Amino acid sequence: MKKMTMLLLVVLLFATAGCNNGQELIGFNNEELSKELKNEGIQPKLPTQFPMEVDGYELQLPPHKSAIYPVMFKGKEGEIFNLRVHTGDVSYHGEFKKEDVEVNGNEGFFTEDDRAGLDLAWAEGDYYYILNYQTVGLDTEVTKETMIRVAESFK
After folding, report:
1. Which residues make beta-bridge pairs with 81?
2. Element (H or E) spanning 60, and its range?
3. Which of 1, 28, 139, 141 has the greatest count of CB atoms below 10 A from its CB?
4. Distance CA 93, CA 116 (A)
5. Distance between CA 68 and CA 123 in Å, rounded?
6. Is there a contact between 86 and 124 (Cβ–Cβ < 8 Å)?
7. Where are the domains of the chain?
């Protein structure tokens, strides 16, 4: 009986490790960013977890009124996640390979490009989100599954 219990525990541990793709997500307090965006007139959901420790973020608003609210999240090791929150319709043109995914029950898609990095796009409520991870020259590897887990952390 003890052997069976131990075997079951080992199997559960490996199954759990496989589910999170081996990449630990680290909490991010989005309260300050949420206040800044509220002051700009929008209240989108924002990430609460990343596969890196966030060293800071930059709300990159243009000098004119815009339907796009870009935010750059910087990691302690030089990692960069870009989030673009759109309040208007978004359309795509040209040829690119995409994979349909689901984020919190919403349809979206994932793309991967050697130069542009990883992109995850989805619509939820009044907002359209595009989450990008810059991959060039960085040691932190991020997968499609990790991108989805970051997106699912939005609160």
Report:
1. 73, 133
2. none
3. 28
4. 16
5. 14
6. no
7. 26-152
Global pTM reads 0.84
- What residue type is assigned to position 143 of the chain? T
* 138 vs 122: CA distance, rounded Å: 25
The per-residue DSSP string of 82-103 comes to EEEEESS-----S----EEEEE
Q: Tell me which DSSP letter residue 78 carries.
A: S
Residues in the chain: 155
Among 22, 20, 131, 21, smallest CA distance to 80 is for 131
Single-letter amino acid code for the residue at 65: K
| Direct distance between the N- and C-terminal alpha carbons of the chain, in angstroms, rounded to an integer | 43
Contact 83, 109 (CB under 8 A): no
